[in-house]
Design a protein that fits this description.
eight-stranded mixed sheet; five-stranded mixed sheet
């Protein structure tokens, strides 16, 4: 299996982190390498430990974060995404209004102290919205271990986005400072854009100690069923100690006692769907079944889901659904819908556990990669359950793909960076619609069994790592025994003059 960009020293240092920071996980390591490796079988180059206190009335999270990692050079960068919501940030325009709504309150992270290996260093925030923290690693060479500690206070903003709250819950997406990626192009310090999911991260281990007031509960990217839970008196607080092994991020939802959970199992995976009193019980049950059935379907088609838990949680927000490792946020209105849209959203976000979660990619420059595969997977799942009912969703995506000529005339493409999409409509119709339609067209020509064999191979070769568009090009070219460039150029780069060459490639590959 490939490990892009790892030198021998990086690998050794990553193994050291596993040994030094994760002894408690040893009992979870197994030898089954049948389709996907278990999280404990893959070393990581970073571990996060946080001790935080959540104040639901003040909408704050305060605490300390320690990150032990393998240095890339004499400095490190952390994304501090919540700072984009500061009062000073210019978040005007239709795209920001789409993500935040009209009713909003600012928020952000105040970092009061930073230490490197125990020694204080200046707090240096960068970028127009202070969304980057630069940390000097004086005297460090690439491949050496470093530990950065920081004390922070997060004021959670109020908006329709991934990081917000309402009267009953607080959902924390992209809230912890997280190491920036250094790849072949150097440090990736991409800003938080209004369109798309502007996130790019590597696998890491997390250990969080979360202190809550009595009467609240949580769901997270970690494994709550084996979390250490302590209740204190007289302050009436609950302390959770939660671990997440080999994940790209750590998301968290705090809920009051109006929330209820439905629980089921898929193999040895615990699946929980969190709804509230007053929600339509039938709608909540349908979403829970969609989560369980789609998790099982994707496991059979693309490789075993390797984590022990999966949470589907009702939140506010504009986004329909938002994916994080082992947990997804589902917009509140989905818990009252009687049509198939809400189930399609859950199926889509569940597929992200494979395409984004297990197999990562650059969501800034190649958003099409995880989103097109995820939406295709949702289409395939819905078709497997009820082909007739799935028609409307599939036809929606196929119809969006036909708008390519209009977008091509405007100089747009599917395979482009987030900052090149003028609005959410173009992003959705190209990245989701055109991208998913490409895979569906290939399925119609080659058959689902052959296509899914290819996607299983894609998952196996890139699990716990990063994939890119060139990997897809190589995979398809090898399968067809012919260069797939015309096919991807036609579908993803909107080079419509390649239509005949793309069709010829599909036909040639069909007979290989």
């Amino acid at each position: 299996m490939r490990r892009r960009g790892w030198t021998c020293s990086l690998l050794i240092a990553g193994v050291l982190i596993v040994v030094l920071w994760a002894k408690a996980w040893a009992r979870q390591m197994g030898t089954d390498e049948a389709e996907t490796l278990l999280p404990g079988q893959i070393p990581v180059a970073a571990s996060y430990r946080a001790d935080v206190r959540v104040d639901m009335k003040a909408h704050t999270v305060t605490g300390v974060l320690a990150v032990r990692f393998v240095s890339q050079d004499d400095k490190a960068y952390f994304h501090v995404y919540p700072n984009v919501f500061q009062a000073k940030s210019d978040l005007r325009g239709a795209n920001w209004e789409h993500i935040l709504g009209k009713q909003r309150e600012p928020g952000g992270v105040h970092i009061s102290e930073v230490r490197v290996d125990g020694q204080s260093v200046p707090v240096r925030l960068m970028g127009s919205e202070d969304t980057l923290l630069q940390v000097p690693l004086t005297g460090k060479m690439a491949g050496q271990l470093a530990e950065v500690q920081m004390r922070f206070a997060l004021q959670v903003p109020y908006n329709n986005g991934r990081l917000s709250y309402n009267d009953h819950a607080m959902w924390l997406g992209n809230w912890l400072p997280i190491l920036a990626v250094k790849d072949k192009d150097g440090w990736r310090l991409d800003p938080y854009t209004a369109v798309g999911d502007p996130f790019y991260s590597e696998m890491a281990n997390y250990h969080l100690r979360v202190q809550l007031e009595d009467g609240y509960q949580l769901a997270s990217s970690g494994i709550e069923s084996v979390a250490a839970v302590t209740q204190t008196r007289p302050k009436r607080q609950t302390i959770y100690e939660i671990d997440a092994w080999n994940v790209r991020d750590f998301a968290l939802v705090i809920m009051d006692d109006s929330y209820r959970q439905q629980t089921g199992t898929v193999g040895d995976v615990v699946v929980r769907t969190w709804s509230q009193e007053g929600d339509d019980p039938a709608a909540a049950s349908r979403l829970h079944q969609a989560a369980m059935q789609s998790l099982q379907y994707y496991g059979r088609q693309f490789g075993r889901y390797p984590y022990k838990e999966y949470d589907v949680v009702k939140t506010g927000g504009f986004f329909g659904g938002m994916e994080y490792p082992s947990i997804v946020f589902i917009q509140d209105e989905c818990f009252s819908r009687s049509d198939a849209v809400a189930e399609a959203i859950v199926a889509h976000e569940t597929a992200h556990q494979w395409f984004y979660g297990l197999v990562g990619n650059d969501e800034v420059r190649e958003a099409w990669l995880d989103e097109s595969l995820t939406d295709y997977a949702a289409m395939a799942y819905l078709h497997s359950v009820d082909p007739e009912r799935a028609k409307s969703y599939i036809n929606l995506r196929l119809g969006q793909a036909e708008a390519a000529q209009v977008y091509a005339g405007r100089g747009l493409a599917v395979w482009q960076s987030l900052d090149q999409f003028p609005n959410w409509k173009s992003y959705a119709e190209l990245v989701y619609g055109r991208g998913a339609a490409m895979w569906w067209t290939l399925r119609e020509a080659w058959g689902s069994e052959r296509l899914h064999d290819l996607l299983r191979k894609y998952v196996q070769e890139n699990q716990y790592s990063q994939a890119n568009g060139q990997d897809v090009l190589a995979l398809l070219s090898q399968a067809a025994r012919a260069d797939a460039t015309p096919f991807l150029d036609y579908w993803l780069k909107l080079r419509l003059d390649q239509a005949e060459a793309a069709e010829a490639w599909v036909k040639k590959g069909k007979h290989e």
